[in-house]
Design brief:
By secondary structure, this protein is an alpha/beta fold. It has twelve helices and 16 strands. Bound molecules: pyridoxal-5'-phosphate.
Length: 357
């Protein structure tokens, strides 16, 4: 079976070496030596000032909202994974959806500006499939209206814009290190900022609000363990190799798919990408069903990603109308893409897709 993704597992001996260190230190969690080592290596690898390793990419967004003191309306994208919207609602914020661009499928800065009211406190945008949002326009809008800017950069490990880590954009940027992502620590995530005051708060909030024996404030348990850090430390040195393997597969799809009947995202800014996903947009949802069924006959399982458009979720109360997101979400399909997917399988997948358009 060929699934949409497959987790990269490092050689088991490499993981075992770290496990031995855990047995030696006898410290399994609470900001242990491997967590600190991983954070330092991530800062060096990515070129970011502050990096806090947390238990997942969803709690990362929730902590970002708390640190920035956001509790009212937040303008956000309907075209993302549900965690973006769910984090807002979980933190008692009100998501106000602004529709996306039909080029890169990221939030449309013009639509963002139209939705701003006195109650707006922040913008929460997703770099969709790892492709950067209109970061300069969004920064300008945030500054002009005194809004905080948070990026859900869950897809973006290793992505650079204008030669700068994409995690350096916004007041706070978050990432997911879930097993399905380009870089992973089994479960995990990180919070990035270059603001020292926010950094201090992130570190407190992720650990119950502790300062020594006492508490600064009400916190949450967003810490991560030595075992998760160990996996991260094993996977991190392989990232350049993983990205290179994905690049080759990505290019092979590019060369073999029938672009007369398909659309893919257009990357606008000068970007060093990580080839995180291979989404195609079909002409209609019926054709998507047809392509999906044809692939399933060969045990090939793509993923509707993102689907559904978050503004259409019935438990998300929203008055916003997002026809572009609703339309593209109904016909988006992510094709299999992982480091050791065989090139002949890529060609086979492309053929099956082309034959059913
Ligand atoms: C994966 C993902 C998340 C959630 O990350 P977890 O680590 O699974 O909590 C949030 N947003 C986007 C866009 C994602 O792809």
């Amino acid at each position: 079976m060929i699934n949409v993704t497959k987790t990269y597992l490092p050689p088991i001996e490499e993981y075992q070496q770290y496990v031995e260190r855990i047995w030696q230190s006898n410290q399994l969690t609470n900001n242990g030596p491997l967590v600190r080592e991983l954070e330092q290596k991530l800062k060096d690898f990515l070129g970011v000032k502050h990096c806090y390793f947390v238990s997942n990419g969803t709690i990362a967004i929730q902590i970002a909202l708390k640190v920035l003191n956001i509790s009212q309306e937040v303008i956000t994208t309907p075209f993302s994974y549900c965690a973006t919207t769910h984090s807002l609602i979980w933190e008692n914020c009100k998501p106000i959806f602004a529709d996306i661009l039909s080029t890169d499928f990221c939030i449309d800065p013009k639509k963002v500006e139209e939705q701003i009211t006195e109650k707006t406190q922040a913008i929460l945008a997703t770099h969709v499939y790892g492709n950067p949002c209109a970061v300069d326009e969004l920064a300008e809008i945030a500054q002009k209206h005194k809004l905080k800017l948070i990026y859900d950069a869950a897809h973006c490990f290793g992505v650079k814009v204008n030669n700068n880590s994409i995690f350096n954009y916004g007041d706070i940027s978050t990432c997911s290190f879930h097993s399905t992502k380009v870089f992973h620590s089994t479960e995990g995530g990180a919070i990035f900022t270059d603001n020292d005051e926010y950094a201090y708060l992130i570190d407190r909030y992720r650990s119950f609000g502790h300062i020594g024996d006492n508490y600064l404030t009400i916190g949450i348990n967003g810490k991560n363990s030595e075992f998760h850090a160990a996996m991260g430390l094993c996977v991190l040195p392989k990232v350049p190799e993983i990205i290179e393997a994905r690049r080759q597969i990505f290019n092979l799809y590019d060369e073999n798919l029938n672009w007369n009947k398909l659309i893919k995202p257009k990357v606008v800014l000068p970007t060093e990408t990580n080839y995180a996903y291979y989404p195609i947009f079909l002409e209609s949802e019926e054709i998507l069903f047809k392509v999906r069924a044809a692939l399933a006959e060969h045990d090939i399982i793509p993923r509707r990603y993102f689907y559904p458009s978050l503004s259409t979720l019935e438990f998300v109360v929203s008055e916003s109308n997002c026809p572009i997101s609703d339309d593209f979400a109904s016909r988006a399909l992510a094709l299999p893409l992982y480091f050791d997917l065989a090139h002949e399988d890529v060609i086979k997948i492309a053929k099956i897709v082309n034959n059913n358009l």
